[in-house]
Design goal:
Residues 5-421 form the Acyclic terpene utilisation N-terminal domain. This is Exopolyphosphatase. It comes from Nocardioides aromaticivorans. The protein has 575 residues and is of the alpha+beta class. The chain contains 15 helices and 26 strands. It folds into three domains: 5-294 and 409-441, no CATH class; 298-405, Alpha-Beta Plaits; 464-574, no CATH class. Helix content is 25%, strand content 26%. Strands 11-12-8-7-1-2-3-6-4-19-20 form an eleven-stranded mixed β-sheet, sandwiched between helices. Strands 5, 14, 15, 16, 17 and 18 form a six-stranded antiparallel β-sheet that branches. The protein has a four-stranded antiparallel β-sheet with strand order 22-23-25-24, sandwiched between helices. Helix 6 packs across helix 7 (158-168), helix 7 packs across helix 8 (175-188) and helix 8 crosses helix 10 (243-250). The chain is globular and about 75 Å long. 49% of the residues are buried.
Length: 575
């Protein structure tokens, strides 16, 4: 049996810490370093780049990361796999080869393509249209000797699964092993979110003495031949790896209990976590089954233009001031869509002017830029001496900016030619799977919270924040918001009772109560007992997605923290 492969991460998004690749190379022994650069919004940004210059379309920061590290990686025999190729993996591969030549480094560079469906004209008006590819192309490139593999829109986990396939020799039917690697890849693909970043229990880590003021260490997955793994980080780096930090990332931006990947359908309700020592968490028990027959496609279209102006309202008569300003401004605005939002007024006699103020925002959207230029900002500025007392704008007038609309689509695999261009220039088309998941396996009802939930009746309760012993992690999936809630793993003997209580209280009606914006939206709640968790999908909360959303928190990143702060009735014997 092969030894575990150590796969490290050096990027969770386009803009992550540039020094992370060097830190992972110098911090200890790893076999492969991976980087994830592509979010739904990033694909839109790269699409806009290609409108300016067709030779762009890739994450240029990856080249900066390589400048001081490529020679070291080759010397240490560490492979690098990244999806930084974005819309132009061939272009980035060429730039990597040029950089290697300039540095005098013999680096074998391969790339994976075939995800870009723009030329197929399957989706009208698409600025970008990229199918999510699996990991076997990456595995083939590594098996054929590549030192660096650049891809386009593979799934986030594929950059981790590919090296594991190459190392362990898995076949397309190694479903459980593949599913375990997908889970490991999902945990480490967002960088330091697995080591304490964006973690609702960060104060617990401080109290436990974790080095939280140091730069957080990027995660590493030690993946065994059966797909089980240990999540860890280099010694001496900041942050911590605990069951809760790993759970936080596991619940990030998932949907049902079935995590659909091009290579395998991963059963999230089979995942088991165990503390395996300081900064070491074991993932085991993961099962998988045949993958879905179709591939998901991320489509971005240009939605038009947007602009906004913000006003500060201070002191008394806040609502009257807002009403007067809106009555003056609204008749003059010609944009197709105008949205007003206002932060809540704070109480009474504030010791600071800021504490006595609220922000009133006016956001305009239109298919054309014209109505959002001077016709939008000019009328606002002209009211400076002619409206409410204390009139203040937070910024000078801005120019309109384009925005995109994201939507998921699905295509038959025959529409996609998953292709590897090996380091020697030869091309290989990766064969599609021959067995696919059936309708029962893809049923969105699988794992949904039953109603009524089997649990004893409440005893005496106290009104307390939901976050008294519940952690949260939230994010965006297009126009939907994902919210994972789980009971903290603090060693309490009340853990099992708390888990049962959480699953009982969190039903769709309760979610709409906690998140009033969702009162007219579809809400799905899935139960993940092994993780002591529920996962919530609020459909349509983010409108047309992050770039188009006018919501205060367009990516739902703070949604979980807001919900944790909400007051609920908690059984006294659970506190």
């Amino acid at each position: 049996m092969t030894t575990p492969i150590k796969v490290a991460n050096c990027s969770g998004f386009y803009g992550d810490r540039l020094s992370a690749l060097k830190e992972q190379l110098e911090g200890g022994d790893v076999d492969v370093i991976t980087g994830d650069y592509l979010a739904e919004l990033t694909m839109l940004i790269l699409g806009m780049d290609t409108l300016r210059d067709a030779d762009l379309g890739y994450a240029r920061t990856f080249l900066k990361q390589l400048e001081g590290t490529l020679g070291l990686a080759i010397d240490k025999g560490v492979k690098i796999v990244t999806n930084a190729g974005g819309l132009n993996p061939a272009g980035l591969a060429t730039q990597v080869q040029k950089l290697a030549a300039e540095l005098g480094v013999d680096a074998k560079v391969a790339h994976v393509e075939g995800d870009d469906l723009r030329s197929a004209n399957l989706f009208e008006g698409a600025l970008t249209a990229n199918a999510y590819l699996g990991a076997f192309g990456i595995a083939s490139a590594l098996t054929r000797g590549a030192d660096i593999v650049v891809t386009g829109r593979v799934t986030d986990a594929s950059v981790v699964v590919g090296p594991a396939i190459a190392h362990h020799g898995w076949t397309p039917e190694s479903y459980d092993a593949l599913a375990g690697a997908v889970v490991a890849g999902h945990v480490i693909e967002c960088g330091t979110q697995a080591t304490g970043g964006n973690f609702s229990g960060f104060t617990d880590l401080f109290r436990a003495g974790a080095p939280m003021t140091k730069p957080l260490g990027f995660p590493i997955a030690e993946i065994a031949a059966d797909g089980s793994s240990i999540i860890t980080k280099h010694d001496g780096t900041g942050g911590a790896v605990t069951v809760d930090t790993v759970t936080a990332q596991l619940l990030y931006e998932i949907q049902t209990t079935r995590y659909l990947n091009p290579d395998v359908t991963t059963h999230l309700d089979s995942v088991r976590l165990r503390d395996a020592g300081p900064d070491r968490v074991e993932i085991s028990g993961v099962t998988g089954s045949a993958p879905p027959e179709q591939l998901k496609v991320a489509v971005n279209t240009l939605g038009g233009y947007r602009n906004q102006v913000e006003f500060v309202l201070t002191g008394l008569d806040i609502d009257a001031k807002a009403e007067w300003l809106r009555s003056q401004l609204d008749p003059q605005l010609t944009a197709a869509d105008v949205t007003w939002t206002q932060t809540p007024a704070r109480g009474g006699d504030s010791d600071t002017e800021e504490g006595a103020s609220v922000i009133l925002r006016c956001i305009g959207k239109d298919p054309e830029a014209g109505p959002l230029g001077k016709p939008f900002t000019g009328p606002a500025v002209e009211l400076a001496l002619a409206s409410y007392p204390g009139f203040t704008m937070t910024t000078p007038p801005q120019k309109p900016s384009p925005f995109g609309i994201y939507r998921p689509e699905y295509v038959d695999r025959s529409a996609v030619e998953h292709t590897v261009v090996h380091h020697d220039g030869t091309r290989e088309v990766i064969a599609d799977p021959t067995t696919f998941a059936g309708p029962a396996e893809l049923d969105p009802e699988l794992g949904k919270r039953p109603s009524p939930y089997p649990a004893p009746a409440d005893t005496i309760t106290r009104r307390m924040p939901l976050g008294s012993f519940v952690h949260a992690r939230s994010g965006d999936k297009g126009g939907d918001a994902n919210l994972g809630l789980w009971v903290k793993n603090d060693g309490s003997p009340k853990y099992e009772a708390r888990v049962q209580w959480l699953a009982k209280i969190v039903k769709d009606r309760k979610v709409r109560e906690l998140v009033p914006e969702a009162k007219d939206l579809d809400v799905d709640v899935y139960v993940l007992p092994n993780l002591g968790a529920v996962n919530i999908v609020i459909h349509g909360l983010l409108g047309d997605g992050v770039a188009a959303s006018t919501r205060f928190d367009p990516q739902a990143k703070g949604l979980g923290e807001w919900v944790r702060s909400r007051i609920v009735h908690i059984q006294e014997d659970l506190l």
